[in-house]
Amino acid sequence: MSSQSSQIQAEQHYVTALYARLDELSAEAARHMATSQPAERAFWAGEAARLESVADGLCFGRVDLDDGRRIYIGRTGLFEDDEPLLIDWRAPGARPFYTATPAAPQGVRLRRRITTRGRTVVELNDEVLALEAIGDDQLTGDAALLAAVTAGRTEHMPDIVTTLQAEQDRIIRDPYAGVLVVQGGPGTGKTAVALHRVAHLLYARAHLRTRGVLVVGPSRMFLEYIGQVLPGLGENSVVTATLPELVPGARVDRVAEPEEARRKGKARMAVVLAAAVRDRVVIPDEPLEVVFEQESLVLDPDDCRRAVRTARRAGLPHNQARLVFQREIIGVLAERLAERMEAVTLTETGEAIDGGDPDGSLSEGDLRALEAAGVVVDWTDPGPRRLLDEVDVANLKDSLVADVQVAAALDVVWPPLTVADLLAGPFSAADIPLLDEVATLIDGGDGVTFGHIVVDEAQELSEMAWRMVMRRCPSRSMTVVGDLAQTSDPAGVTSWQDVLRPHLADRWRLAELTVNYRTPAEIMAAANEMLRPHRPGLRLPTSVRSTGVPPWDRQAGLDEIPGLIASMPGRVAVIAPERHLARLRTDGAVVLTPGQAKGLEFDSVLVVDPDAIAEGSARGRNDLYVAMTRAVHRLGIVRLSWADDSPSTTVGPDR
Predict the structure, then answer these.
(1) Alpha-carbon dihedral angle through residues 618, 619, 621, 625, given to the nearest 10 degrees
(2) Contact predicate 164/513, CB 8 Å
(3) pLDDT tens column, 405-433
(4) Is the pTM of this model over 0.85?
(5) Per-residue b or e along 605-629, where b marks 16 or more CB atoms closer than 10 Å to that residue's CB
(6) Angstrom distance (rounded) from CA 654 to CA 469
(7) Does the chain have fewer CB atoms within 10 Å around its N or its C terminus?
(8) Are strands 572-575 and 602-608 parallel, antiparallel or unpaired?
(9) DSSP string spanning 338-384?
(10) What residues form DSSP beta bridges with 60?
(11) In the sheet that 120-128 helps form, which strands lie side by side, from edge to edge?
(12) Angle made by CA atoms 473, 477, 483, in degrees to the nearest 5
């Protein structure tokens, strides 16, 4: 039996015992519910519900301590004769599971994450904090992989984490309640820091678990990748999504041209869209005829104007404000129809009921006609009378609202709207915030809000995208993660202050990660040298890890790429302009554009046609910087021969 299998079996034995104890407590709660007095029954019902709610993923972690103790961590505390079997993740004793690092292990030798499906242990992932104290045969999951990787570069990996510890710990524990921007270059651990900060916030602010946490990332692949390092957040309180996934039914079917993306990303598009929605309300220049049950009623432009003014003062989205408009107009129509009904004649001689006299009082003939109609008449009170009471008028309004012809007439002035009435596809990524803006203008949006939001690769968000994110967090509690040196979107961020101040004023703070522990110093030096002249004043990270192997740079043809891939160690990525991708497909490497490679890392990277990447857009240098900094060990740069770089051999347009 393999080490992995035997350790899963051992953990299964322990987890089974935990569930047995949970079942005992649940049965005890059920017995109390059946036998207790009503006052106590409510308590035991709540306890039974609590035990049921923690059953899914009951135990998710373990720490092995230097003193020989082994502590299991989960969603609740379980005890046997005062002996702790499982520590509640919120308890102080569980805190090292979240905060211990190789630099400050807090007495922890090994941290294990336990994945269960139902009551079955399906996966173990270990993180070693004191490698020299643990043999390879004791490792499983990620720790075994870490040991194998460390064997080739043992002298570097511990030093990286040690160097970063002070910066990471400061940001993770930062209690700032507003928006904390974590700015850091490649390999500085921005994402890990942000997720650990959320874990700390959930521990310190229990209300966030009920209000929910949203993690926004650039792609579903990226979110699935970081989702594996989210234990402790709780699956019920953390939602992950890309920007398009925040808009139900939205699909990205095309790539916007750079100028289109820039234009649609500007905040002034919100003004344009609001005006477009507002312009759908059209006050007629001429009187508007409304037919109701063969009666013709007339609305003057002033009637419509007053109703529109009242509806807009309500400050509601278009379709909700439309109901206010309809209410106002229906009131006008009902009043006029009631006046007309009050003036009807009931006598054979044509005498009018209530309206025969100029002052509105009832004449003697009116009273006789009413008496003949079976109405009890008070002859001593001939003053003004109405035939319709408040209930009659209310019923009349209901009939007007339900009438198809009336509704059609009112829709001429204030029509109902859908998003499709203003924006039609196919859509690009630049259109997604516009779709969300219009949905908010006409219906108020989806109404889903969160207590805290993490925005990863935040430098790619346009001004319109920031409006979209801000709507989902009224409290403005966020952790924003990004690197201005890696901005590639034409409408992306060039200044954190410029995009955040309109929404937050001074309620945001900047924290910086400055040390790169992933990318070797030789590769980082080449990337920084390429970028620095084009981004003066921007603080670029320093790598503390050196391999002694500088990146190589040579000229070659596309047909030579497979041979170059075979010469490079580990998992290889080929990063190239989109126009070359079809000819670079190979089983030996992952083939990506710089944008697709963002946030990922590989043992070795081949950057193909760097000049085309750098010159492919206004922010092409940033794209090249991203491509060059994905490598953990080796970087090769391939400059294409003239024939391979000519238009006749390219597969498609360079976007």
Answers:
(1) -170
(2) yes
(3) 999 999 999 999 999 999 988 999 999 99
(4) no
(5) bbbbbbebbbebbebbbbbbbbbbb
(6) 31
(7) N
(8) parallel
(9) HHHHHT-B-STT-PBTTTSSTTSPPPHHHHHHHHHTT----TT--S-
(10) none
(11) 78-80, 83-88, 70-74, 59-65, 108-117, 120-128
(12) 100
Secondary structure (3-state) at 251: coil
Specify the amino acid at residue 608: V
CB-based contact 485:540 (threshold 8 Å): yes
Give tens-digit pLDDT for 67-90: 999 999 987 889 998 899 999 776
- The CA angle 486-246-179, to the nearest 5 degrees, is 55
CA 230 to each of CA 22, 125, 195, 215, 550: distance values in angstroms, whole numbers, following the listed order:
24, 13, 7, 11, 35
Closest-CA residue to 60 (of 25, 24, 29, 98)? 98
Query: Phi/psi of residue 87, each to 5°?
Result: -100, 130
Q: Classify residue 227 by its DSSP letter.
A: H
Lateral strand order in the sheet of 452-455 = 238-241, 213-216, 452-455, 478-482, 179-184, 508-513
The rounded distance, in Å, linking the Cα atoms of 367 and 15 is 90
One-letter amino acid for residue 66 of the chain? D
For residue 401, the one-letter residue type is V
Segment (H or E) for 404 = helix 404-413
Q: Give 576-635 pLDDT, tens digit per residue.
A: 999 999 888 888 899 999 988 887 888 999 999 999 999 988 889 999 999 999 998 999
Residue 222 to residue 414: CA distance in whole angstroms: 44
Place of tokens 């206010």: 324
Q: At what angle do helices 3-35 and 38-53 cross, to 10 degrees?
A: 160
Q: What distance in Å separates the CA atoms of residue 331 and residue 337, rounded to the nearest whole number?
A: 10
Q: Which residues is 114 bridged to in the sheet?
A: 124
Going by pLDDT thresholds of 50, 70 and 90, the confidence category of residue 292 is confident
Written as six digits, the tokens of 15 are 């987890």
Rounded to whole angstroms, the Cα distance separating 114 from 121 reads 7
CA distance readout (Å), 9 to 2, 5, 128? 11, 6, 20
Which residue in the block uniquely carries the two structure tokens 């990863």?
456
Cα(338)–Cα(335) distance, rounded to whole angstroms? 5
Query: CA 632 to CA 602: how far, in whole Å?
Result: 6
Q: Which of 314, 319, 369 is nearest to 347 (CA)?
A: 369
